[in-house]
Design goal:
- The structure is a single chain.
- By secondary structure, this protein is an alpha/beta fold.
- 48% of the residues lie in helices and 16% in strands.
- The strands form 2 sheets. Strands 2, 4, 5, 6, 7 and 8 form a 6-stranded mixed sheet that branches.
- The chain binds one DNA strand of 12 nucleotides through strand 1, helix 1, helix 4, helix 6 and helix 7.
DNA sequence: ATTGCTGAAGGG
């Protein structure tokens, strides 16, 4: 198995990207995009050029219009979304948006819980296979490593019956979704089961809002995985969204690992075709069962196990609703009043627009938040 | 890089 690692560990997060001057920079960059969009959207009528306007006022006008016409996908410069983006959106859409606008603003307490969860997941993965670091420099390299992983994991699943961290991707409602399935295995009945481990700080089962989010997550994985093995995720669709360059030469370390895996691939295009063939011709079934397992971080006590019923119609309509935001077809929403308790642990409670409108903020006050 | 670009998930 291989994982990727940027050759240069230049970290944007470590250099104060979470202060306010950063968001100003982002707005400025958006202005450039907005110009183009506004130009291409303006009607080519005869009187489209208004005389007497100087450059400054024109560009300001375009900037304002641009903010309206740019979809969140464009504003955030995203070519695809992560499965967990839609899941955060399921928890609170507005919180997810603030998270995109102000990245790296988690409190240390939350970060610590996430770190613990991540290490437990890593330990479980290492029980199953080793990890090798593959230096990469381009996004083509990154996808190539992902493909190499898929190509080695499919036979392993079919022969040994269990794999972890299986990459999935596929177009859903016009947007490319990318994610990683925690675990896939065959049960004693010969059914293909997806198992998602959730580690918890406190030794109690989550409330229903959290469970709903987790149900949605595993349902999305099945949605995408099934499409992949059924040949519905084509190389063409992937290229269309990611703008991958098939003729760009792969990095030496990637080529080396491909050879070590017994593959004589020359290009990314070769690799994609192999992945497509392996996915569709390996007799992989659709996922039969979706299982969630909750364990206590500190003691590893099993808190509970849930089998999730896959409701395709429901998953699809949720995705449609979430994607409508990303496409710019509607504004982001905060939580319903009944779920305003979520705001108590939200890092953006002080700046949230939604709370001003719903009136929940006047009747009660969450515990004081530390100002950064 | 003024015209670029992405490990996903991690828990509540």
């Amino acid at each position: 198995m291989a994982e990727t690692e940027e050759e240069e560990m230049a970290s944007a997060e470590a250099s104060g990207f979470s202060d306010l001057s950063d968001s100003e920079l982002v707005e400025f960059l958006d202005l450039e995009d907005a110009k183009e969009s506004a130009v291409s959207l303006s009607k080519p009528g005869p009187s489209s050029e208004l005389p007497g306007k100087d450059d400054k006022s024109v560009s300001l006008q375009n900037w304002k219009r641009g903010l309206d016409v740019l979809s969140p996908m464009e504003r955030f410069h995203l070519k695809y979304l992560y499965v967990t983006d839609l899941c955060s959106q399921n928890w609170c859409e507005l919180q997810m948006v603030y998270g995109k606008e102000l990245p790296g603003s988690l409190t240390p307490e939350k970060a610590a819980v996430l770190d613990t969860g991540a290490s437990i997941h890593l330990a479980k993965e290492l029980e199953l296979h080793d990890l090798v670091t593959v230096p990469i420099t381009t996004k083509e390299d990154a996808w190539a490593v992902k493909f190499l992983n898929i190509l080695s994991m499919i036979p392993t699943l079919q022969s040994e019956g269990r794999i972890r961290e299986f990459p999935v991707f596929g177009e859903v409602e016009g947007i490319l979704l990318v994610g990683v399935i925690d675990e896939l295995h065959y049960t004693s009945k010969g059914e293909l089961e997806l198992a998602e481990l959730k580690t918890r700080r406190r030794p109690v089962l989550p409330m229903s809002a959290q469970k709903k989010k987790d149900y949605f997550q595993v349902s999305l994985y099945k949605y995408i995985f099934d499409a992949m093995v059924q040949g519905k995720v084509t190389p063409a669709s992937l290229i269309h969204h990611t703008k991958l360059c098939l003729d760009k030469p792969l990095g030496p370390s990637v080529l080396r690992h491909a050879r070590q895996g017994g593959l004589s691939v020359k290009s990314l295009g070769d690799l994609m075709e192999l992945v497509f063939l392996s996915l569709t011709l390996s007799d992989l079934p659709a996922i039969d069962t979706l299982k969630l397992e909750y364990i206590h971080q500190e003691t590893a006590t099993i808190l509970g196990t849930e089998i999730v019923a896959f409701e395709e119609k429901e998953v699809k309509s949720k995705v449609q609703h979430y994607v409508a935001y990303w496409m710019g077809h509607r504004d982001p929403q905060g939580v319903d009043v009944e779920e305003a308790w979520k705001c108590r642990t939200c890092d953006y409670v002080d700046i949230c627009e939604w709370r001003r409108g719903t009136g929940v903020s006047s009747s009660w006050e969450p515990k004081a938040k530390k100002l950064k």
